[in-house]
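Incident log, structure service

09:12 report received: a user says their structure output differs between two submissions of the same chain.
09:20 pulled the input from the user's history:
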Amino acid sequence: MSSDSPRLITIGCNHHKTPLEVRERLALSSESALLLQNKLKEHPEILEAAILNTCNRMEIHAVANGDSVMDHVSRMLGSIEDFPVQEFLEHAYVHENMQAINHAFRVAAGLDSQLVGETQILGQMKSSYATATKQKMVGPVLHKFFQKSFQAAKWARTETKIGTGQVSLGNVAVELATRIFGKLTVSRTLVIGSGEVGREVAKAFRSRGVACMSIASRTHERAQKLSREIDGLVIPFNSWQDTLPYVDIGIFATSAPMSILDKATLQNVLRKRSRKPLFLIDLALPRDIDASASELSNLYLYNLDDLADIANENLKNRQKEVDTCLIELDRKAHYTWKSMKLES
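09:34 re-ran on a clean worker, output below:
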């Protein structure tokens, strides 16, 4: 294939090569992701494009002419306010053609996730496809790319046991809380944030018998919706810090651009708790809680990387299934690429 022919290409950063403190600086807000999507649409050499933007990865899937796609993407990212382009380039990976398909199959199946075997990423890929389709940036190549990825994920779920075990954020967070508190039926829980991640974890805690749950969110309507789903109590977002001394478990999953809870505030909270432990799970990126707070006594602070380590403790039990799945996905990627025709 000549350098002037269209290429299928994936450019991105994820948890494999990028530390948490860097990933939180690379995280795109929904507004920035939409801005980038529009810039991709306007570029004459980019024929198709979709953005996958999650807490642990930011990927651009594109069909483009020429060899300068990375340069184009770098300039576009540089036009986004405060985006650290140099850090992105230091940690970025590039996959082309069949390798891009192979990578997408692994991502869709949850095999490239921090929590190996998790299913949330498939829904996020479907949202990426839907957004790009709405922007009229999905043509025949990306359409087949995504549809075959979804089919590969379905095969992995139905024909293998890669999903066996605690492979969702909600289940892992509940397992961790149980290690600390034992039974959770008398644990008071506060959920900050009512998006997809916060909702998943809140439901997991409710399913394990947590009786008292409070929800706070900048979006009051979403907080009310979540409270109905889990039979919880909505509290005003501007007063959630006042409730911290009286809860046992705090789940933080907002989309705030910077931390909303610092070490000094937590120090004051702990003084009011008479040496009772406080368990906080920070699922946000950028992080909601100042990382230095982990130094405080009687505070158990866990972030996304911590939960991934715990989730993958049982990976050895599933390794044979994972290996079998990877071999078959490689084969499926090969045949999918052979069936694609990229023409200039």
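09:41 both user submissions now match this output. Likely a transient worker issue. Closing.
09:42 reviewer note: The two ends are 10 Å apart (CA to CA). The chain has two domains: 7-159, 169-311.
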